[in-house]
């Protein structure tokens, strides 16, 4: 018994040791597999990308480029293509009035907010699609050109086929969610090339940084304009189903590429991926072209019905000096995010590119009505093809904008509430800033019961942003106390004297 027991113990020890070795080996094996599985799990299946040499048509980079994806607001590229086609054929003019039906006016944000029966010019509609990615204006254009949005969608799909876009079907004019609407990265690259090749006279619209609409200035959602050398458009897009999309046209000397990123996990990661693709593949592009890559086609258009109406009137914005550090609430680079998501992304402000005067043979001027001053304030729409700073450009820019700045300074003294206020956010859209104010007021309850919400615009890199503030505080202490109450509710804010 004394000898048998140690033997059993020894066998048990060996068995336990063997079991532990096996278990450890299995764990190590699982651990080696885990990162790969995790990587597959975290990789967004929506991702697709392509880089095409716009001189030769050669594919420089491809990742799931022919797989179906949701286009989101990239859809508006085709809406613009058909609009440019109608302009070039003389079927419509830039000053033709685009009437908003009940259907168009009811589209979800982001939108420019024209009421049913109201209208804007074709040029204003084009700019609203390119900058704000306005869903209502896109639908109104589609209804005008196609007779109905359904018929326009059929025209869009037919045009896609004629341009060689075999993997695309359109169901609406704006890209709002529709499971039957899809595209591919390769098709979007073809459309981007076609827009430049077929409509060079209108293509510079895609470089517009911002434009004046009524009494507000609408900024472009495309953050790569001015940030990456040579980027001159084209379009961004986002829905929760599609992820973050971007088509970019880039020119550096004689080299030209069109790059597409679909299904990004965030606006920043998408932009960074696009920047990486441009940096990597632009040097590989050819300096010599071989003629048009996309065949031109003619598609019959229905007659256009036009109605007269007034532009919507907005509260005049009031300028202010921005603080040293400013946080900007950034909607995604697409209009669709506002329709699909209640999330607000807060990003720290980064140095913006210096303003550059557009050197174009056909300057476009938008007028911001200011009835209280008995006239109109002109704003030059930026359409710079060459973003490199030129000697003396800052001085020229300041001189060009001087009349508008002086008029806005007069508006400041007339409109900004005096006393102490608290600021909760800033946004590139006055409408978004006001929406934040409404949401904050509901969350704050008694802390802001007697406060008055208002917005204050400020310039940053040639683009107007809007501070969201509450006024009506008698002293610094009362403003600070209100701000402290908001912080307890996890609402960022700071007090400021007006």
Automatic annotation (TrEMBL):
Instruction: Supply one GO BP term.
Output: peptidoglycan biosynthetic process
> Which amino acids does the record list as binding substrate?
235
Task: Name the keywords, alphabetized.
Answer: Carboxypeptidase, Cell shape, Cell wall biogenesis/degradation, Hydrolase, Peptidoglycan synthesis, Protease, Signal
> Which InterPro entries does the entry mention?
Beta-lactam/transpept-like, Peptidase_S11, Peptidase_S11_N, SPOR-like_dom, SPOR-like_sf
Q: Which residues form the SPOR domain?
A: 414-498
Does the record bear Signal in its keywords?
Answer: yes
The catalytic residues are 73, 76, 133
Annotated signal peptide: 1-38
- Cite the GO molecular-function annotations of the record: peptidoglycan binding; serine-type D-Ala-D-Ala carboxypeptidase activity
| Entry's family note | Belongs to the peptidase S11 family.
The protein here is known as D-alanyl-D-alanine carboxypeptidase
